[in-house]
Amino acid sequence: MVSGVGKSGLVGQKIAATLSSTGTPAVFMHACDAVHGDLGVYEPGDPTLLISNSGSTVECLRLIPILKKFNSTIIALIGNLDSPMGRDCDIILDASSCGEADPLGIVPTNSTTLAMAMGDAMACALMKARGFSKEDFARFHPAGQLGRNLLLNVRDIMSPLSHCAVVNAANTVREVVIAMTRFPLGAACVLDENGVLTGIVTDGDVRRMLQSVVDLDALTCGEMMTKKPICIEPDASLGRAVKLMEERKSKISVLPVVDGGGKCLGLLRLHDIYQPQ
Hints:
four-stranded mixed beta sheet; 2 domains; 13 helices; Rossmann fold
């Protein structure tokens, strides 16, 4: 449990949230609510983090003897070591600052910033001690982009081949454009007679051809396509797909999805990776 009042309480809410999201179960409990029934969430031995810059916050001091009856290890994050909390708690974290930053020297500014930083440091240390991984983080953040990148596979959001523009190397530029207009995903898959991917034509390829080629009707898909394009397998994570698309000198926005035999299964767009489902 994390507890405090006033600005220290607000800092405590953030610390509890950070701990929970990084693998250390924690809840914030206002010190006043704690003595009015909310201590019912406690199990014997649960540790408590009390936050107080002065180390003399009455509401926190009132909690200490009660928490000891729960056999709770009491950790004090305080700015004054020579204080009642500094003397009565089991573990003391020194968050003393050189004074507040406001002109009067009394508004919680430096003290709250330091307390927040120490809370983050605690969370990071516990992550390391627990062996908390990116995969663990993703399980607790399934709606965030990091969670999507780690938990979802390409097959979960790719456009299947039936929804993609499919052409062959002998098709004309006009036929390619018509196919891409029907399925506007930004690219057309160029397949052989066995469904194996032989290349890809993107919107950018078409625009460049329009600027440089005089006789478009004489140009075939095979002449303008990108041969041996970067591809991805359906079971790859979205995170791997993002790396393939963005961590390169010339970024790409669409990937052909192929199986182990090179057969095209569909397309994956960067837009779909970042689009909330």
